[in-house]
Amino acid sequence: MMLARSVDRVLDGVALEEGTVGEKVVATRAELADRQLYRCKLHTCLEALGRMLREDRFDRPRAVMGLEIELNLADEQGLPAMNNAQVLSAIGSSDFQTELGRFNIEVNITPHRLCGHVFEELREEIDTGLRYADRQAAEAGARIVMVGILPTLEHAHTGLDAMSHNQRYSLLSDQILAARGEDIALDIEGVEHLQLESITMVAEAAATSLQLHLQVTPERFSSVWNAAQAICGPQLALGANSPFLFGRELWRETRPVLFQQACDTRTAELKAQGVRPITWFGERWVDSAYDLFEENLRYFPALLPICDDEDPLKVLASGGAPRLAEMRLHNGTIYRWNRPVYDVAGGVAHLRVENRALPAGPTVADTLANAAFYYGLVRVLAEQPRPVWTRLPFERADENFRQGARYGIDAVFQWPRPGRAGRGGGLQTVSAVDLVLNDLLPMAYQGLDEWGVEPADRDRYLGIIEQRCLRRTNGASWQSATFHRLREQYGMDRPAALAAMTRRYAEHMRGGEPVHTWPVG
Hints:
Helix content is 45%, strand content 16%. It is an alpha+beta fold. The two termini are 30 Å apart.
């Protein structure tokens, strides 16, 4: 769902100061005509960005974080509920917005300062908001389920009739199919094998995610982005929560491979030529935010070449902060697991790193534990005198990401040994659990202390991460274990077991206790 959501909202997510949330792309096919003009505008935007970076035209340092959480809708039987329009009408809050699939919605959380009791404040805010939304959704015949992929979702639920009623979604679907020139297929080998010859763009709406934003200065951007890339594998190992897709048990976190295949604009010939996919981990560590926006322009043709009437260079000359609308829209059609975000709030430009690797759920407490681990760990890794990315080859970070998604809490990584120097040397093979408990979790504690987070918040939420590791339990492992127990002990067929497991998941989710405490079965 991320690609469509990003195009749907040109501003790439929450605005961390005064910016608006949920601005929409409005376009007709007649406006998609001049790709050459759009490419010229992209070059102008990039030139403006370069000047702004050289001239230090960005906001002062702020420890500001923001969250977005995507949510599934299910009926009382645990099956997908195709009525997000009615649910949103019942909720009646601009914090909740539509999504590509009629079976999901999104909530945007007000940005917070990353200090003090921020995680407890967020817990109360998110929990209150979701409980209200769930009560309102129930009046429309649906319940909210915070899970990476709804286990009961079938291929039949993802036809074009399951697309939310909005022209921008059909427009984007048309553009992806036109770019590819043939049907999109799925072929995912995991615990089981899923192979489909033809899917619609709605298939990517199966995946619902948590996005973590962090506002950074231009000077710190590359260090924070590189650190966030380096830990994507451990993040997925800890937070995996999407083991089922279309009735098959696949990867512990199936979202990444689903996104890559469902949003792939490349034919087999273009893949053979080495053309990069729009769902992309990347291929190198960076030195500046400019590197990523320049890669976007160099490697990826425009899916939605819609031109704005702003002249960025004139705005700069007048002392203003340009919107750089074309650059931001183009950035929104490229799925990076850590996305660079340029935004303007209150007339002042700022940069953010948007971490997009994690799935939604299982509970608010688990969500905030994932956030606490990320923000604490990134703080320390970004400030190390010998950064991890100088000792970890980028291709190893990419493989760690794949291993974390494929095997979840049981993943094994290649990671730099402590005290060993040299890019590409001194790597050790280490389990995700041991890496987190022995190396990464202590750094996350240190990082939250450096942010000024209260010890009680720090200990509560990082304690959840520790218990997941000690019990080797996360959302994906609980779903899988419960599904198999229902099959083996109660003789349920596959659809019945998935539905029963989904109902139990939703019940535990509403109870609020973290997933490592849930009984199996």
